[in-house]
Design a protein that fits this description.
alpha/beta; 385 residues; disordered N terminus; 16 strands; binds zinc ion; Arc Repressor Mutant, subunit A; 3 domains; Nucleotidyltransferase, domain 5; single chain; 41% helix; 5-stranded mixed sheet
Length: 385
């Protein structure tokens, strides 16, 4: 598909019908007409167009409700692909996905934390090339979505600043479009995670929710009534740099005591080493979880303390935005069995009103570490649908 083909989708009716099929498939033309209020002849003619564009197909399993069997419609799985990239500070992962988020191919490479712009871009292209080569018909590729750590300028697709890798002003969109000649969209990784959650999980459309990504860094994505929030300078949601302890450790951003200095995988390891005399030098975050599972009290205490600190961040977020729901994800949340009870308890103790304590839903993403990369793929889907 050539760049610019998305303009074909600009018809409101077409977009409404495609979304209806996406959210309610399998669905018949009659049901689409009934549920969208678009007239049956218009539905029929648009469905015909969508089928010609390989976006929709007939289901072979039409359900009979007595009388004539209606033809059920589905999104076409094999018609189009999107490429999603999760560009972290220590690895770059790439996937090819169909329109419903099935991961069809994936690859990843490790990168050094502090590398030059050129090496970073070359590594990124290498991952995209591997995925690109695996797809035979290149014109079925709708585009490439990149979830980049750090601050991103959405319009130009430039990675402005990353405190974790020290990268500045990386023209991701321009470089990838030049080589692969498809639409490229770039988004901050935590916002991409929020989009992945919104797109691929069942969330009520009226709901406002916040996802918090806790891994090597900490960020959040805010979705208000189906829309991602950016703020005036694109840094809305940078919860990792919310100051929790102004006498605390120096953060990668230069400030002291940011949430990020307390709850990332590395921060947890550091705290464990400070508190536990016999902790091995090469202690990894995964090992802390394993020791806690074995019942070692010192390690359990470190995780409970982490749950408390995450809880403090979450309570601040509740007071600032009062969302319906908070979804936690990222590698650190693999220890959810130890963290979640303390996080919940902290909300119960600290949130301002009884209603906020009772009704703020808090859960761990079931997409796990795929939320971000699927969100990267969804950047393109959000354009199409
Ligand atoms: Zn900071």
């Amino acid at each position: 598909m050539e760049r610019g083909t998305f303009q074909l989708m600009k018809s409101v009716n077409k977009s409404t019908i495609l979304n209806k099929i996406r959210l309610s498939e399998p669905i018949s033309r009659a049901e689409i007409a009934k549920e969208t209020g678009i007239t049956p002849p218009t539905v029929s003619s648009i469905v015909k167009e969508l089928m010609a564009e390989n976006l929709v197909e007939k289901s072979i399993l039409g359900e009979s409700k007595g009388g004539r069997k209606p033809t059920m419609l589905l999104l076409k799985r094999s018609g189009h692909y999107v490429i999603g990239i999760d560009a972290g500070s220590n690895k770059i992962r790439g996937i090819a996905s169909d329109l419903v988020g099935t991961i069809l191919a994936e690859t990843e490479i490790e990168i050094q934390p502090h590398i030059s712009k050129e090496i970073f871009l070359e590594s990124l292209k290498k991952v995209v090339r591997t995925i690109f080569m695996g797809i035979e018909e290149k014109d079925t590729i709708l585009g490439i979505g990149v979830a980049m750590h750090g601050v991103v300028d959405i319009a130009s697709g430039v990675s402005l600043y990353s405190s974790n890798s020290g990268l500045r002003d990386v023209p991701i969109k321009e470089e990838l479009e030049k080589e692969f000649n498809v639409l490229v969209m770039v988004e901050n990784n935590s916002r991409a995670m929020a989009l992945g959650e919104y797109w691929f999980k069942d969330h009520d459309e009226a709901e406002s929710f916040v996802t918090i990504n806790i891994g090597r860094g900490v960020g959040s994505g805010i979705v208000d009534k189906g829309r991602l929030c950016y703020g005036a300078q694109d840094i809305a949601g940078e919860i990792g740099h919310m100051v929790i302890d102004f006498h605390g450790k120096v953060c990668s951003c230069g400030n002291k005591g940011c949430l990020e200095t307390l709850i990332t995988g590395d921060a947890i390891v550091q705290r464990a080493k400070e508190q536990i005399e016999e902790a091995p030098d090469d202690l990894a975050a995964e090992a802390i979880y394993a020791y806690a599972t074995e019942g070692k009290k010192d390690y359990l205490k470190v995780l409970e303390e982490t749950g408390y600190l995450i809880g403090i961040g979450v309570v601040n977020l509740i007071h600032l935005l009062n969302p319906d729901k908070i979804v936690l994800g990222g590698g650190v949340m693999n220890s959810e069995e130890f963290l979640m009870p303390v996080i919940r308890n902290t909300i119960q103790k600290r949130a301002l009103t009884e209603k906020a304590r009772m009704y703020t839903k808090i859960e761990v993403s079931t997409l796990k570490e795929d939320a971000t990369i699927l969100g990267a793929a969804a950047l393109l889907l959000a354009e199409l649908f």
